[in-house]
Amino acid sequence: MKHYILRNHYLKKLSALKEKNVIKVITGVRRSGKSVLMQQYQNELINSGVKAKQILSLNFEKLENEELLDYKKLHDYICQRLNPDGYSYIFLDEIQMVQGFQKTVDSLYTKENVDIYITGSNSYLLSGELATLLSGRYIPIHILPLSFSEYADAFLLKHNRVTLSNPYSIANDISGNSNKNLIINPQQLFSDYLKLGSFPQIVEFDSQQTSYEYLDSLYNTVIVKDICGREKTVDVGVLTSLTKFIFHNIGSLVSSTTIANTLTSNNRKTSYNTVEKYLNFLKDSYIIYEVGRYDVKGKQHLKQNAKYYAVDTGLRNMLLANKDTDIGHLLENTVFLELLRRGYKISVGKVDTKEIDFIAENENGIEYYQVAASVLDPATLAREIEPLNGIKDHFPKYILSLDNYTANLTHNGIRVVNAIDFFMQKF
Predict the structure, then answer these.
(1) Which of 212, 253, 290, 338 sees the fewest Cβ atoms within 10 Å?
(2) Mode of pairing for the β-strands spanning 345-351 and 288-295
(3) How far is residue 408's CA from residue 288's CA, in Å, rounded to a whole number?
(4) Contact indicator for 197, 215 with CB cutoff of 8 Å
């Protein structure tokens, strides 16, 4: 990406772990910015006084590093370049391409003054032998594509010091305009964010067609390189049909049995076991995220049914050819990703027969969220409030909508907040 935006949220996490005796494992979907994050952190190290010769950075997608795909050669190469007079900072990008990389990483971990950072594009990186060898020795840092706040910063930087207007002013025509005094309406920018998605490269493109061509290429890379390259018996047609089903039903409770029956009725004969296996492939590659249910009154996690969300709304829209652009579903998906980005453990809430979109929990407690495109209609507002009123604890409760509020509203302690204001919060 030409107009790099500092990923400060992730940089703070990395800085807090500098020279700590753990391996930093950066995971996330392809092209979410892992490599750029590593470059930014290396720049921070140098600015803090670390010498360039102390840093060794290798990207295993580059042809010049092909010989190092052998874990023994990689190990020897790194050991020959370790700094004898202080710390060595080792950055290994897309490490899963090195067969047996776990042995290299494990050996480097045992050495004095070696600070290790690795990235990978699927959760397979944290399974199997790596988890066994490095149990208790690594900390995962999961990176997502750009938040709306980061997306807005990137857009402003691209247009050369553009400033955001009041959220509810009249939008200006921004087509092809790079005027330094240009004012952009955040509502229009957010609409583009939902439509085109949040992958960093998207900000560089000036048309929906180019953006979707890029997203199509990205999707096929994940399917072919990350899934089919590892799982040789995958039926790509069934996998794509499954992905489209999940994308079409984001925010809806579904089961593997329902999915299998639906695909079979659409001439994609599929079994329950295949659906389960393919869902795991998609989750491992961070294309989708699964969210389980929690009974608030019964205080237990429920095993039946789950919700799924896409890693990126633009990727979803591209794959569905913009045939399902329900703003409520897209907003709910974006709220889920934002809560995940902020480090919450997320569940779907059940209160008697009613549903709460998200229960978000962290070390500070619990927050409850309802999401709706608009709650200006009294009946809609009452429907969103009802399940929140059924919760008897005193944790914060929110309704997020796209309605134009000049100030936050409160109903019986439940705060109604503009979603764009929520997304623009710094954390």
Answers:
(1) 290
(2) parallel
(3) 32
(4) yes
**b/e per residue, 147-179, with b = 16+ CB within 10 A?**
bbbbbbbbbbebbeebebbebeeeeeebeeeee
Instruction: Tell the residue number behind the tokens 């295993």, with chain if given.
Output: 60
Average pLDDT over residues 32-58: 96
Residue type, 138: Y
Spell out a b/e string for 308-320, using b for 16 or more CB atoms within 10 Å of the CB, else e. Answer: bbbbbbbbbbbbe
User: Residue ranges of the alpha helices (H) in 97-222?
Assistant: 101-109, 128-133, 148-158, 186-196, 208-221
269 to each of 44, 239, 325, how far by Cα in Å?
A: 52, 12, 27
Q: What are 8's two structure tokens? A: 């400060």
Nearest residue to 41 via CA among 32, 50, 30? 50
CB within 8 Å of 31: residues ≥ 6 apart: 145, 199, 200, 201, 218
| Predicted confidence (pLDDT) per residue in 253-290, tens digit | 999 999 999 999 999 999 999 999 999 999 999 999 99
Helix (H) or strand (E) holding 333: helix 327-341
Burial of residue 19 (CB within 10 Å: 0-12, 13-18, 19+) is exposed
Q: How far apart are CA 183 and CA 204, in angstroms?
A: 19
Among 43, 44, 7, which Cα is nearest to 26's? Answer: 7
The β-bridge partners of 302 are: 293
Task: Give ∠ CA 220-223-229 in degrees, rounded to 5.
Answer: 120
The owner of tokens 């370790």 is: 82
**Would the CA dihedral through 400, 401, 406, 411 be positive or negative?**
negative
**Three-state SS at 400:** strand
Helix (H) or strand (E) holding 320: none
Q: How far apart are CA 409 and CA 368, in angstroms?
A: 16
Contact 386, 370 (CB under 8 A): no
Query: Residue 82 is encoded by which pair of tokens?
Result: 């370790």
- pLDDT tens-digit readout, 176-193: 344 445 567 889 999 999
Amino acid at 186: P
Contacts 24+ apart (CB under 8 A), 47-52: 50/87, 50/89
Tokens encoding 385? 């409030």
Asked if residue 204 lies in contact with residue 1, where contact means CB atoms within 8 angstroms, the answer is yes
pTM for this entry: 0.92
